Amino acid sequence: MQNRGGVFEFAIFADRNWTDWLPTYAWAIEHREGVIVVDTGQGAHLLETGKSYHPYARWEVAFRIDPDEEIGPQLRALGIGPRDVKRVILTHLHMDHDGGLAHFPNSEILVAAGEIRTASGWAGRIRGYLPQRWPSWFDPAPFELAAEPFGPFARNRKLTDAGDIVAVATPGHTADHVSILVQDEDITFFLAGDASYNESLMLAGKVDGVSPDERTSSSTLNAIKSFALAHPTIYLPTHDPQSAIRLADRRILGTPTRVVSQEPGNKLRSVAR
Ligand SMILES: [Zn+2]
Hints:
It is a single chain. The protein is about 20% helix and about 20% strand. The chain has helices spanning about 55-60, 70-75, 95-100, 115-120, 120-125, 200-205, 215-230, 245-250; strands at about 5-15, 25-30, 35-40, 85-90, 110, 140-145, 155-160, 165-170, 180-185, 185-195, 235. It has a six-stranded mixed beta sheet with strand order 1-2-3-4-5-6, sandwiched between helices. Strands 7-8-9-10-11 form a five-stranded mixed beta sheet, with helices on both faces. The longest helix is centred in the C-terminal third of the chain and has 17 residues, at about 215-230. The chain starts with 6 loop residues before the first strand and ends in a 24-residue tail after the last helix. The structure holds zinc ion. Zinc ion binds near residues 92 and 94.
């Protein structure tokens, strides 16, 4: 592995029984401060939980993966071992984002403080989280977002010394959901988590059915859109089947025909599904 600043994506699961194929992507950033992983995808073990009557979990349980599709084996295939990953940042704690945590026992794990509170304990379980499935050692480092705007986003927190990776508040899907902005030269890789399920829903300002807070989600979508139209942005939601293609092509939102040539220092590989 070379320490250069590439962004990789991993299709953590592909459910062949789902009407439309939906991926869960996780992201690895080769950064000079160490590899940073954003979200960890689904875990095969999480799908043995049996019945859940929470609408979110019912929806999620439709997905299936095999153990070798989890993020650990996929990272190793790229030559990135668990000890290479300095930090794991989670956009939120739904099970298709924290399901691969077991692969990172030695990494610092960063989660927004409010999200940890919401997801923990019985109250978290009632809300559709699976705190009982977290690894026993799971003790994330909570971070607070400063009440300082970052473009159209009300709160932000820089997560690297270089200041080039920033968490911004994108509430709605969960109250403390964050998106991670990776700024590389003039391009922003917008790791949107579940702020919207795909790019067209975001551009249309359409709030998905799983979101508990429609008004908040809607203003988040507006903020993302105004950011993405004002800065060269590659928009990468977790479940958008086009995310991998957009990343591979370096497709800037709003300029569908433009393909930004890869910088010599950037590496990109996609992992097979
Ligand atoms: Zn979610």
